[in-house]
Structures are given as C-alpha cells and as structure tokens.
Design goal:
With about 190 residues, the chain is mostly helical. The protein has eight helices and six strands. The protein is globular and about 45 Å long. The two termini are about 25 Å apart.
Length: about 190
Amino acid sequence: MSVTFRFHPQKAIEAAAMFLKLHGKPMKHLGLLKMLYIADRISLERMDQPITGDCAYSMKFGPVLSSVYDLIKGNDVNDALPLWSEYIFSPKKNFVQLLKEPENNYLCELAQEIIAEVYKQFGHLDPFDVAEWTHGLPEWKKPPENSHIPIIVDDVLRYLNKTDEDIEEIRQIEIREAYLDSALAA
C-alpha cells in the first residue's frame, strides 16, 4: 500500500498566500503551481510530509498539485473553495492574486522557511522555465497529449533517498494522523 497524504486546504491557502505576498503582485498560476509542488517535494525530503498534502500529477508543463489547480480554476474541493476565494482570486485566466493575508495558523516555521527558499530560487523566473526545470525531476513522466499521470508518493520518497523502512514509517504515521483527525471531527 502506497503512502497517501490528506489534502490540507488551510495549509495550501497559507502557502499560496505566502508565495503571492513574496511576489507582491498577481502571479501566473503556472508559477504558483510549480513553486507549491517544489515546496511540497522539499518538505517531503526534510519533514517526511508535504506542506499541502495534495495529490500530484505529471502534466504537460510538469508536476501539478491537483486540488490546488482545481481551486485556482474555481472548482470546489472538500468545501474549500469559499475559504480559498476569501484570500486568493483569479482576476484573469492565467493569473492569481492575493486578496488578503490569512493568519498563519497552520504552517510551521520550517514550512515557511521552505516556501521562502523556493520563492528566492524560482520566484523571479519565467514560469515556463520553472516548468521546464521540473521536467528534470525523476518523478515527472511526459503524459499523453491532453492527459496526466499520477505521481506516486513512494516513488518520490525513493528519489529523495528514503528507505523502504522510512517509507513504511511515514505511511503508518499518516494513517494514525488520518484516524485521529477523523476521530476528533466526529
């Protein structure tokens, strides 16, 4: 059984808002999607969990976080669209902008450092150059035209030099956290 993380809309919103605040103006959604993926990947390497918990897919322009992309397009995911829309707006087809800053209640200090580091490295680049850079990641596979391929978390963890024992431990921790979240929500 593969590692599966739960999507955390609040973390995704705070991470997206942080990137947009650092950018200081509307950003091409492609750039935001690439930097969020890269931040999730670095977080997997350093903290054994992604920031957003979102599922990723290989698409034409590199890896994409599925739920975040849906929210950008105005599609609801886990009833998160109203919250997303309170903070982030797509004024034009290919751009997103920060409407107001959310409180930072969900991102830990290390996640914030990762976001700042990713923005420093990629935020000034053309999003298509960042997309091209992500094509060099071993988990990205060129999909058939107008399609996508799921990115398997276990594969990414192996590319990040995690052992099978590490991966099993990460999977068990995520199962326990999902159980606790559901028990507390009941």
